Amino acid sequence: MAGAAQGGVRQVLRVEGLLVLAGAALFFSTSGFGWGTFFLYLLVPDISLLGYLAGPKIGALSYNLAHSYIGPLACLLSGFWLTLPLLSCAGLIWAAHVGLDRALGYGLKYAQGFHDTHLGKIGRGAKSTSP
């Protein structure tokens, strides 16, 4: 698929995601919040998948808004700046989710369909189209 990361670049982006997940979990461990909170909210960003009920264009938009690093970093910075630990906690869990998705190969979506991502195709046919 045109526009998708391939080869070494794809692997670097996946390792980057793994490191974001590890870093977010490390900082979360010092936050004072319990791991139950972490695991309870870890999959909340996937609610954005409901956007696909309105079609692939809206689905990709809602998914990408919830799965870029912009939101988590805004939460982290705001929580730090405003001294709101709950907001920082949300940012760490959100960043961990995005990092986990990237490490697993789930990238930002293109409007053509759910299976077309910036990290390459996912799902059926992914192996046959990957270099």
From TrEMBL:
The keyword Transmembrane helix applies. It comes from the Bacteria. Keywords: Membrane, Transmembrane, Transmembrane helix. Pfam families: DUF4260. InterPro entries: DUF4260. The chain crosses the membrane at residues 18-44, 69-95. This is DUF4260 domain-containing protein. It comes from Herbaspirillum lusitanum. The lineage of its organism: Bacteria, Pseudomonadati, Pseudomonadota, Betaproteobacteria, Burkholderiales.
